[in-house]
Amino acid sequence: MAAALAPDNALGIRAFADLHACSDLALCAARYVHRRSACSVLETEEFLALAPETLAQLLDSDRIMVPNEEVVLDAVIRWMQHNPDERQQHLGALLEHVRLPLLAQDVLVARAAAEPLASAGLRVKDLVIEALSFHLLRPERRAAAAAASARARPRQPPRAPKVLVVVGGQAPKAIREVEVLQLDASPPRWRRAAALPSRRCRAGLAVVAGKLYAVGGFNGTLRVRSVDIYDAGADAWAAGPPLCARRSTLGVAVIGNVIYAVGGFDGASGLASAEAMDAREGVWRPIAGMSTRRSSVGVGVLGGRLYAVGGYDGAARACLHTVERYEPAADAWQPVAEMGARRSGCGVGVVEGALYAVGGHDGPTVRRSVERFREGAGWAPAPPMASARRNAGVVTHAARLYVVGGDDGAANLPTVEVRATHASTSTDTTPVHRPHFACTLHT
């Protein structure tokens, strides 16, 4: 029966398997619903025939793969309206399993003002108020709220294999090309993905809720505020909310659902300012600025806090060895231990509770050295790379650092170095002949 699974029979096969204690078949049907066809299953006649208790169990799962929580809300309302006289009474209990705080604020307000939510009972109104209150929190406080409430936490469906995505760059001018490396393939191979809508280099990348954000950068003429969003399922880009400030050579990182854009260069001077956007809200807002202007800054997240590592202070004409740490709950930066070397254009990655500063340069000297930071222990040397490189992309996968491309001060580097926590080896994949690209992991 597993071979016959389809969106219009998966729920029925799962019920049959549960009834007859066919655990392997039940697991296979559940995986089919969660991983492959949730949206299609929610539109079937079988779904509309579910008992309230069975529907609540389905909605409660962290494993449902849906593009957004509004799909789940629509499914519950459609189920209720299939037999409103008998099912209206269950609406409040079922909405307890819908993650209303994950809806965009304007969508939530509109849905709350429309039927059937507008005239629903007290329990429904309490859930709507809870969700609206979540949106009134400062973005940096929402992570703590999400940890305290399952309804505010994103669903975590099974993930596809990780891929490494390289976006834009210089070759030698700003380019639109996007390349993807399937890390779990043997051997790993690069392939092309949909090109950026416009030329972009020196940008930052972030991944939130399965969407990839290309943030700021340089288009070959101007430093930009623009943000482009990539949907891997559709292999397509769309325009996103613009930054508050023009930023190239910025640092970008994610804590929870909040994307942070830190420092950079606006075409006239280096920036100490920073801004943040909750991806569910879609609006950038300024946050506290750093104590130092930092372009070509490396950024990483360790212990729920944001680290701005090295960079270049144009006012002082100096590459930096200083490091600042941002505490989201306090909206404040503070200095932490300095690195042993000055590093502008270094890559930053986090592996097994340690933050790594990889390569970079100090004026004419491009470094192959690496430093490792642990909270409470400060910085210490780590094994060097095989090649000196700056402006490389750094990502983490399977407890390894991938150091991608960059340049050595004389030429662009096509190599990818793969580093375990105790060693470093160099692997030459198909070429990435450009520096100043943005690099991240995606599923």
TrEMBL record:
Transmembrane segments: none annotated. Residues 10-113 form the BACK domain. InterPro entries: BACK (IPR011705), Kelch-typ_b-propeller (IPR015915), Kelch_1 (IPR006652). Keywords: Kelch repeat, Repeat. Gene3D superfamilies: 1.25.40.420, Kelch-type beta propeller (2.120.10.80). SMART domains: BACK, Kelch. Coiled coil: none annotated. This is BACK domain-containing protein.
